[in-house]
Structure formats: C-alpha cells, structure tokens
Amino acid sequence: MFPFNLNPTGEFFAFFALAVCAITGAVMALSLAKVVHTALSLAFTFVSLAGLFILLGAEFVAFVQVLIYVGAVTILMIFGIMMTKHRDEERERGRPLLETLAAVFCLCLFGILFFAIRSAGFPVPETALPADNTTEIGTLLFTKYAVPFELVSVLLTAAFIGAVALAKREEEPA
Amino acid sequence: MSMLASYLTLAAVLFCIGLYGVLTKRNAVVVLLCIELMLGAVNLNLIAFAKYGVVPSLTGQIFSLFAITVAAAEAAVGIAVLIVLYRSRATVNVDDYDRLGR
Q1: Residue A123 lies in a domain
Q2: Count of domains in chain A?
Q3: Mutation for testing the A interface, residue in B10, B35, B88 having most A CBs under 10 Å
Q4: Looking at chain B, which residue has its C-alpha nearest residue A99?
Q5: Which of A30, A57, A88 marks a domain boundary?
Q6: Are B34 and B22 in contact (CB under 8 A)?
Q7: What is the CATH number of domain B2-96?
Q8: Of A80, A96, A148, B72, which has the fewest CB atoms closer than 10 Å, so is most exposed?
Q9: How much is the pLDDT for A128?
Q10: Is the pTM higher than 0.90?
Q11: Which ipTM did the prediction report?
C-alpha cells in the first residue's frame, strides 16, 4: 500500500516523527485564524526542518536554520504583524472558486512531483559525507566558495540598508 | 534509495502547502511566511541530495546556506516594503495592493 519499500530503522522512525511535526505545523498555519498563531506554527515547522537536517548529517545547516529562520525571520514577521493591523481576521470571507482552483493546482503539482519521485531511480551513493562537516564547510567557504561568500555578504548588507531606508519614516502621515 | 524518496516526498508536500498558502491567503505577512516555507522545502531537497545523491558532497549544504541567506534578505526587504505599503494604504490585504505608488 505504501509505495516505498521501507525498512523499519531508527532513522525512518525519527524521519516519520519529524515529518509529521513539519506537515502538522504547515497545515495548522494555513488553518489557524490569527496571524500570530500562523507565524508560531510555521516556526514549529522550521524547527522540525532543522531536526530533519540533523538527521541528514547537516548539523551546521540545522543550527543556521534555527538561528536564521526561527530566531530572525519569524521574529521579523511577528514584528511585521505587530506593526500592521492584524485584528480583522473575522472579515475573511470565503472565496470558494479561487480556493478550489488553487487546491486543484497544488494537488496536480504534488501528483506530478510524486509520480516523478516514484518513477525516478536513485542510485546508491558509493561514498559518505565527511564526519565533521562544520570544519569542512568552513574550509570550503573560505577556499572554493570565497567569492560567492563575499558576494552574499555584500547582498545582505545592501538588503538590510535598503530595508532600513525603505521603512524609515520620511514624512508624518496625513 | 527509499529514504531519499521519502525526503523528496516530504519536501514536495511542504512546497505544495506553501504554494496553496501563497495563492489563497490574503494577509501579506502570511504570504511572506508561506514563501519562506517553500524555500525551506527546497533547502530540504538540497540537503537530502547532499547526503543521498549519486556523489555525496557538501556542495548541497553550502547551496542551502546561500539560499537561507538570500531568504533572510528577502524577508527583511519584504517586511520593509509591507510596512511602507501599510503606511500609505492602512491595510495588509494583498488584494488591495494593486499598485506600489499612492
């Protein structure tokens, strides 16, 4: 019935628990009425994704995920919610045609992706990842990927200066 | 490799949920958050291929680090634009954001 031939290992059970947490957080985010609850539910999804990254042997990316997504992006979104009007969620009237069309479109996309994943043959990798991947990532970032790394830092600086310049209040609102 | 297929399926589920939220939600902050969810699903794909791909390497993890950085910059600029728009329109409904000027 389940399309993958599974072997019940510890990794699979950890994956299953974290996957249930991630999907629950995402679905709850779409169904909750208050916007702050949506943000917190998506933070739960991001924490579950960090757990999946640890399961995949990417500890450094998992910590970066917690720091950036849960620590920065979600808090930034909550600031955005607080600074805008968020108490009018009851005004949400249904748009059944658009929601049905969007649901059909997303289900079709998922069906195509699922069919592609099932029909693809994935060869078994012959090598393994290096064990201390934080050291390896640091070495790679400052040798092979030094130029993209510096470009990304320039991009971040430009984006944050641009964000401050945009959000700075120029004149008093009428 | 069944674990890789499971990870890819989970990423597809999260991506489609995020896409549905982007298409149907009307609060602009929720739309931005759903875009972050889609980017997170893509990062999960990259890291799954970094471990279970044909040639496992750290390139996928470095790609996802860059993607996370760009996503943070996108969220900051998006919230700034949203606050400016909220100041001139007094609404966060994306249906009312039909032009960027006044």
Answers
A1: no
A2: 2
A3: B10
A4: B24
A5: A88
A6: yes
A7: 1.10.287.3510
A8: A96
A9: 75
A10: no
A11: 0.91
